[in-house]
Design goal:
It is a single chain. This protein has about 350 residues and is an alpha/beta fold. It contains 13 helices and 13 strands. It has a seven-stranded mixed β-sheet, with helices on both faces. Helix 6 links the parallel strand 4 (about 110-115) and strand 5 (about 140). This is DegT/DnrJ/EryC1/StrS family aminotransferase. InterPro entries: DegT/StrS_aminotransferase, PyrdxlP-dep_Trfase, PyrdxlP-dep_Trfase_major, PyrdxlP-dep_Trfase_small.
Amino acid sequence: MLNLARVIATGRLMHHAGETRSFTGRAQARLAQMMGVEQALLVNSGTSALIVALKAAGIGPGDEVLVPAYTWVSTASAPLFLGAIPILVDIDESLTMDPADLERKITPFSKAIIPVHMLNLVCDMDSIMAIATRHGLAVIEDACQAVGVTYKGRRAGSIGHLGAFSFNHYKNVTSGEGGAVITNDGHLMRRAEVYHDIGTFSADYSVQDWDFVGCNQRVSELTSAVLLAQFGRLDKDLQNRRRRRARNIDRLLPLSGAKVSPHHDPDAAVGLTLTFENSQDAKEFAAQHSAVTRIGDIKRHDYVSWLPVLQHCGADPRTNPLLSAQRKVTYSADMCARTIDILSRTCLVA
């Protein structure tokens, strides 16, 4: 509340580029320091963060972007905004992108990978980065659901070429809405800054750099003030979740007949899911425990619910890359059946 009062008292609710002592400038510096990267850019949503990151990486019409079949629809729709085509990749029992299926899905049109750290569960970033290096692909980490979580001593979002965060109501840090892009690459950040600020951004605002036309995805000082106040509590909150995870394993695992789902960094694990032999066992266990949800019953994150994507629906067919691609693009409800099977057999423990 104190930060918000200070913003209102100044009468300046809009962030101006280059103002390092503004709440936005301070929040960006604090976020970069926390994540162990050179630069951070606050934007108005996690969806915007993905779009800005893809644009920074040079993704455009006809390019293929590999995304997991289990994620929020923004991961798949962000490439479409830039004329690119999302290619769906199965997950494995870790609920993150399966590196083996990822490599199978790569084609000469592939340009980027968006691994998603779902439910505070980290991807196998060593394997994904190795695949990306072999094929010359950009990696944009979608860490929207894992802000602050670590993978082998590094923060999720800091391992790929760019990282994207969300700060909406349901995330580890929230300002209602909001997002961020992080990177160690100054050229990529420069492109991100230009694109998010209508092509007018400059560290010295007296100089106009019209590199290319952009959008307005800026964040307000009010949002930045809320975020800055919360960043200091993030690590403590995550540590509390780790302790709760350990307690839940001790309490629920003996009752479940299941196994703890594979995790790519067990010592730093925050999220907890249980994998069952079949979907019925998972459904019955979830019905018996209020803190447990069968993930297959949460339909909004599996690819089958992305009807505008699967059905090639756009506001205008003339600008729909799924219709204008020089090759046939086909999606179906059973194209990632392994993902649906895994989700039906997995329970999330809150």
